[in-house]
Amino acid sequence: MSETPSPKGAAVGRRIGIGLMYGLWRPRVLGAWKVPAAGPVILAVNHSHNIDGPMLMGTAPRPVHFLIKKEAFTGPLDPFLKGIGQVPVDRSGTDRAAVTQALSVLADGGVLGIFPEGTRGEGDFAALRGGLAYFAVRSGAPIVPVAVLGSAERRGRLVKALPPFQSRVDVVFGDAFAAGDGEGRRTRTALDEATVRIQQRLTAHLDHAKRLTGR
C-alpha cells in the first residue's frame, strides 16, 4: 500500500527551497495570492530547466508535493526526496502507486505540483500528457498555471547545468480554473476535452507571463 506523502515533510522542503533559491538566485514572484489559501490545488508548471521544481517549492505560498521522475530517486536523494514529501513516478507506463499518492495529497487538501509536459523541454506547454487532466477531473481540484521564466538562461553560467547564480528568475502564478466540464464526466472523451482546455489556459498564461515580465 502506498503511503500518503508527508505534509510536514513538504513543509520542510519548502523551507529548504526558500533558503536555496533565494540564496543562489533572485526570484521575483508575481501573483502568488492567486493560489487558494486552503484546500486541494494543482500547480501546473512549465519545465525548461532542472531548478524549476525546487524554485517553485521555494516560492509557492504553500508546501508542494511534486510528481518527480523515479530516476531522480537514486542514492541519498531517494530518502531525502521522499522525506520532503515528493512523489516518484514511473513514466514508462501507468504508475498506480504514484497515482494513489497524488490523489491522496489532493484528498487531504494539499498542493500537487505537476510538469504537464512530462519531461524537461522548451517549457512552452506545447505537448501535454493526460495525467494533469485525470488528476484535476478525478479530484475536482482547481488548476493554477505557473510560468517559470529565466531558469533556462544560458549566458553567464558558472555551472553548465544551472542558470547564472544571482540571476533573476520570474515565477508567475495565474488564475485558478476548473478543468472539467461541470458535469463530472470522467470518460476518455471528457479527459481529452479537459486536456485541450488545460493546454489553452496554460499557453495563454505563459504568453501573458512573458508579456508581463518582458521575457
Write a short abstract of this structure.
This protein is an alpha/beta fold.
Largest sheet: 7 strands, mixed
Give the C-level CATH assignment. Answer: Alpha Beta
Structural class: alpha/beta
Task: Assign the CATH topology.
Answer: Glycerol-3-phosphate (1)-acyltransferase
What report would you give on this structure?
With 215 residues, this protein is α/β, with parallel strands linked by helices. It has one domain: Glycerol-3-phosphate (1)-acyltransferase, CATH 3.40.1130.10. 37% of the residues lie in helices and 16% in strands.
Structural key phrases:
alpha/beta, 7 strands, 6 helices, Glycerol-3-phosphate (1)-acyltransferase, 37% helix, 215 residues
Task: Set down the secondary structure blueprint.
Elements: H1 7-24, E1 26-30, E2 41-45, H2 52-59, E3 65-69, H3 77-83, E4 87-89, H4 96-107, E5 111-114, H5 131-139, E6 143-149, E7 168-173, H6 188-213
Parallel strand pairs: 1-7, 2-5, 2-6, 3-4, 3-5
Antiparallel strand pairs: 6-7
Helix pairs in contact: 1-2, 5-6
